[in-house]
């Protein structure tokens, strides 16, 4: 449990850099994601085939994982669109609503009862986003894409958690990332028609940052997050990712001086969103202590 928790937060730390890298890479959102998943999927196939970690799975599981991969790609595209239309800070903070969407969707998909505390904590995040959205009208398009990204980000961990209970993490990630590149490639003509781009070939600097994004922030981070997802609920994992905006926003302030573009409403909303994470962490710790006490009483 402790090792999974540590890996989860390393994954969150790496995820905090994705927004920064999205700003540093000059490509538009769709092209950026296409290169990211192309490199990452190639790495997964080579790495796990070499380590003999890939299992033979059913066609039904392959189709499901390809679908999950397509949803993952759409999540990344909308996330980087949020950054391009607003800025890194806004795009990252919108991802904090993933916890709210997960609290609503996970019980529906897994056919379990909704947990009132999770829904309330999710609503707290939504209130924070509303405060930012209501007062900072210049960010509305970016926030819209950010909320779409958060909704999609809530979906694929739920389905992945169900899948990796039956197959190993390496196989699940490899086919998921294959779905990312297939889905992005098939939808690429549509995206380019909607939002034409004058640059599709990365520059030398773009290639460097794309390798960092694909290898560290995708291959390594996704392996660690899947280890955690196998031990914790999808809600716990996604709410832990609320720390991602903390790391990303601080980096954006330092690297891009974004503080000058953000009004007081951003910081009020940001504080409300972060309070949901603190409350959830305290509740988890309390529940862990309670479970240990129950286990001790049973064995005594």
Automatic annotation (TrEMBL):
What are the EamA domain coordinates in residue numbering?
9-133, 141-279
Looking up Pfam families in the UniProt record yields: EamA (PF00892)
UniProt KW keywords: Membrane, Transmembrane, Transmembrane helix
Enumerate the transmembrane spans: 32-50, 62-83, 89-109, 116-135, 141-160, 172-195, 207-227, 239-256, 262-284
- Tell me which InterPro entries the record gives: EamA_dom, EmrE-like
Name of the featured protein: DMT family transporter
């Amino acid at each position: 449990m402790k090792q999974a928790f540590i890996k989860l937060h390393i994954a969150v730390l790496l995820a905090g850099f994705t927004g920064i890298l999205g700003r540093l890479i000059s490509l538009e959102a769709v092209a950026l994601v296409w290169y990211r998943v192309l490199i990452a999927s190639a790495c997964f196939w080579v790495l796990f085939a070499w380590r003999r970690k890939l299992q033979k799975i059913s066609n039904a599981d392959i189709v499901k994982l390809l679908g999950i991969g397509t949803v993952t790609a759409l999540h990344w595209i909308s996330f980087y669109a949020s950054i391009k239309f607003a800025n890194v800070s806004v795009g990252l903070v919108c991802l904090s609503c993933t916890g709210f969407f997960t609290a609503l969707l996970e019980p529906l998909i897994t056919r379990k009862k909704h947990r009132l505390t999770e829904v309330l904590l999710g609503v707290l995040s939504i209130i924070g986003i509303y405060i930012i959205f209501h007062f900072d009208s210049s960010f509305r398009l970016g926030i819209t894409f950010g909320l779409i990204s958060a909704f999609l980000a809530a979906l694929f961990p739920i389905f992945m958690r169900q899948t990796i209970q039956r197959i190993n993490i390496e196989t699940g990630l490899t086919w998921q990332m294959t779905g990312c590149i297939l889905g992005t490639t098939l939808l690429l003509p549509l995206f380019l028609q909607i939002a034409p781009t004058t640059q599709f070939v990365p520059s030398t600097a773009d290639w460097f940052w794309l390798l960092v994004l694909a290898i560290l922030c995708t291959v390594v981070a996704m392996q660690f997050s899947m280890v955690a997802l196998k031990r914790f609920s999808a809600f716990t994992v996604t709410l832990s990712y609320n720390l991602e905006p903390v790391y990303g926003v601080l980096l954006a302030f330092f690297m891009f001086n974004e503080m000058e573009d953000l009004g007081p409403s951003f910081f009020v909303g940001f504080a409300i969103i972060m309070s949901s994470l603190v409350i959830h962490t305290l509740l988890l710790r309390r529940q862990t202590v309670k479970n240990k006490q129950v286990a001790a009483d049973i064995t005594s």
